[in-house]
Amino acid sequence: MAVALTSVVSLAACAKDSGGTGGGGTNSAQGSGCTLATPPADAAATTSTTTSDKKVDASALKVGLAYDIGGRGDASFNDAAAAGLDKAKSDLGVKEIKETTAAPNEADSAKEARLRQLAQDGYNPIITVGFAYAPALGKVAKEFPNTKFAIVDSAVDGAANVTPLTFTEEQGSFLVGVIAAYKSKSCHVGFVGGVKVPLIQKFQAGFDLGAKTAAKDIKIEEQYITPAGDFTGFQAPDKGKLKAEGELAAGADVIYQAAGNSGKGIFDAVKAKSGAWAIGVDSDQYKQPGVADDKDIILSSMMKRVDVAVFDFLRAVAGNDLSALPKVFDLAAGGVDYSTSGGKVDDIKKVVDAYKAQIVSGAIKVPTVPAGS
């Protein structure tokens, strides 16, 4: 995959601290310890959103939302869903809502019971947050064919009343991989995933390729908090901190985390290491109250716009037009992106946006599986 990219993106090395070429500005490479590739020429990435200006009244909806483990307040994945729900309350007039949360490593039967109770109580639509709900939803959706369901990060085959809300996490992760390469003084970065499952490996795959496209000599540490099947990795800040400390001790000075509530521990580890940076995930974590103590070391966040997907789904249900939703929330649809809060990547924004335009145009294809997996 990296070989294929060379036909699109020139990897001709430029001198360290040269400022790069092709729109990064004279300071775009300043401070990087890597030999940076020549970035693509300046280009504007054409993106769109699914939300129209047509007024929709959703006050009659009775919305159920089932969070993944960690629930509202995780400063990451679930809080992104919560933000979409809150926007639907303020902008669409949604009034009646019930929110529930999964427990770590709970049985599918517990998820079935949670969703079945929501449906029996008349909640419609019902949104499930996280791929772990897929088996349970596959059963419950058949029992309630007149209830509209949505699932974030998965799909349910053969269920016409279930709308998948999926994302190209790898595309947004590519962009923060570029940021990591440009901001690393040691040309050594790290990735910490919560649980080693295919979804989180998409984050790793994009990050790896973005970093290596920007700097082919970069070194990348890769760790997962727990193996597949043990979902406590998304809610173990202490274990996340240990993984991050190991990567920092190995020489990494920029760490990207895709670990849910465990990200707080990763941020704490980075903050304790002089000169190190962290990259957040899902929400714009620089703005999240739950990690406010660490905002000074957050370079950027890979924003997975679950908030947009949740809001757009509720709007589409209220307007009786689910066909308006994109089949996947990708970079072109504004479903993923990178944040600039705090101004720490302002000096390289043109470079990152040039790579972004290459992905949107299709010139850069980002894999969903890490190399060697």
Automatic annotation (TrEMBL):
Task: Please state every residue range assigned to the domain named ABC transporter substrate-binding protein PnrA-like.
Answer: 68-367
Q: Plastid among the record's keywords?
A: no
- What is the protein's major site of localization? membrane
One GO CC term, this protein: plasma membrane
Compartments it resides in: Cell membrane
**What are the protein's UniProt keywords?**
Cell membrane, Lipoprotein, Membrane, Signal
Pfam families from the entry? Bmp
Establish whether keyword Acyltransferase is in the entry: no
Membrane-spanning residues: none
Protein name in the entry: ABC transporter substrate-binding protein PnrA-like domain-containing protein
